[in-house]
Structure formats: structure tokens, C-alpha cells
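RECORD TYPE: protein structure
NAME: Cytochrome b561
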Amino acid sequence: MADSNPKISLMRFFCFFVAVILLWEQKKILLVVADNDDGSDQSKNGCKADLSKFLPVPYSNISNMACTPIWNTFDLRYFQSEDNVMTIVLSATYTTGWVGMGFSEHGMMVGSSAMIGWIGEESQASIKQFFLQDSTLSGVLPDIGDLDLTDIPPVVVLHRSTIYLAFQLNFASRQAHQSILLAFGTKPPAKNQLTEHDDRTTILFDFSAGTVSDDFKSIDTWKQNHRVFSIIGWGMLLPVGAIISRYFRHRDPQWFYLHASIQFVGFILGLATVVTGESICNILQADVGPHRGIGYFAIVLCILQVMAIFARPKLESKIRRYWNWYHIWIGRTALFLGSLNVVLGLQIGVTGNSWKIGYGILLAVILVSVILLEAFLLLRRHEKPLPPAFQVKPIP
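PREDICTED:
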């Protein structure tokens, strides 16, 4: 017996060493559960699912965890301990691709950190922290971020048709209201490079009450309206009104009424763009940098344009020429800033490619139209008949 003790001690030390290494390399500990159940027990889906059957402790300790449906098929389970450690289990319907949950100070995607989970080839499960440095796919950086993970390994489980992302976070203080980003993509990441999301949303979650803020429920609608107003107002109507003013003056007085009507509608939509943008900033408490300032400056220029109409001098007035210069260049400056701000907004809002492509096509059509109309205008001026050098009186 005495001779076997050193062997037993050595074996125990080896097992302890292996356990420490596994816990240390927590990001490599991934779990996938293949369930051959036919899924007939649909009553246990969502918040009613028994996590103890397929999740390890502490994630399976559902007696201490609250559960709330938060978006589409996404359910959030969480428990916040007295030492500000939060245990989170995010579940969602899954077929392929990835599912993610991000944490943001102001509800914006750029600058946030997220936990992303997916099932790759040969049923290999992966979960990683990503940092969203900018709005491009190359700016989504793996294995870094501001989330303070505990020593408990994060876990990914595929149970029937639902994926579960489980992880623990350390917080400096007890969490109450928190901006949360939710997203999913149907294409799995390749070599830890995240693919384009198919859908996403931002919510303001109250961990103390387990509720989603009503303001954030409508944030996607606010963003949609903001984009539509800006593209139609700043991107289409105001440029078209300016084009009519410059290239169709020979259609007098129709050009004036058409120009004034289109510019007025464009101004209203531009004003609506600012109002919806301000509402979004107030809800998200977001810092959008120069986008907000440029928007306000552009709408101030538009207001000056409207006010200038009431101070328009008569055609024979000596100052009419200076008023024309003012009206033209203030308008052009507003149009340039408006178009620039639409581009900035599409980048900041991390919109899908369809919005960017659509606005790019619209901008290209306007630019090509301006070039062609300017060429026709120059040709018309060049082809104007010159007055005769001398006039011959007609013979009576």
C-alpha cells in the first residue's frame, strides 16, 4: 500500500493540472449537444425549456434565473449575484449561421462588445467575444472586447432547433438599464471573420424588472423613418428642385412654381429627418459625432432659404443680383452637406448594403443628369443667334 501512494499522488496532481489548464483555456471549451428527439414536446420551448438536461452548472440553475422573451425568437435568461456577477443564457431558433448578443453604452453598434455563437462544420460549436471597432466587417475583431468574462467557460449548445449561448460577466456595479444589441446571420463565420447580419435590433433592458423599455421597442421604426426621410428629402427632392431652377428657366413661369413646390416638400422632409434623428439620439443617448452637427447646420441653411423668399427683391432692383448669389450658393451648400450627411448616417447606422446601394444609384442618376443638362445648357447658349452687325430698315 505504501508503495502505491506516490503513484496515486502523482495521478491526482496530473488530473488537477489538466483541470486547471482546461479552465484557463476557457474560450476553447465549447459544447454542442446533438439531440435526436423528434421535438414533439413543443410545450417546453422558449422559457419553459428544462436547461438542466443539456446545460452544465451554473447555467442550468434555472431556479435562480429569470427568463424574458426580448425579440423575435430570442429569449434572455439571467441571474445577477450579490457580487455583481451576471449569468446569462441567450436562446434563439437556429438553423445555420450565427447568433449574437452585444452590450453598448449608448445603443450603437460601433464601439460595442458582443458574444457570438455558432455551429460550424462537423457540428463544431464556437463562442467568441467580438469588438465592433467600426461598421465594416473587417472592423469586427475576434477575441477582444470590453466584456469581463469570469473563469466559468462560456458554452454553446444546440438543442433540437434552438441554440443556447451561456456565459458569465463581471460588472463593477449592479446592472439595471442596459442597452443590448441582438443580431443573427444565416452564414456562419469563416476563420473567425463574422459575416453580414440578416437582421438586428437594439433594446434597452431593465435587469431589475426583467422588461424591455417601450421607447426601444419602436427604435427600429424611428431609424427606418429617419433613413426614408433623409434619402427622399435630402437625396432626391431638394436636388431635383435645384435642377429645375437651373436648367428649366425657359419654361416660365412653370419652372418657378414647380421649383418652389418641390423645395417646400423637400424642406418638410428634411425637417422631419432632423426631428426623427433627435428622437433616436435621445432614446439611445448616442454620440454620433459630426453627423448631428452637420444635420442641424444644413437645416438652418434651408430655413434661411425659406426666409429669403419673403425678402426677395424685384427683378429690376439693383440688389437682385446679390440676392441671387446668396440664394444659389446657400442652396448648393445645403445640398452638399445634406448629401454628405446621408452617407455619414448610412455608415453610422450600420445599415444593410441595400440602403447604401440604393442611395448610391440615386446619387449617380442625379450626378449624370446634372452633367448632361449642363452640357445641353452650354450648347443652347453657344447656339444662340448673334444679333446682326447693323440693322436694315424695311422698305415701306
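COMMENT: The first helix runs from residue 5 to 24.
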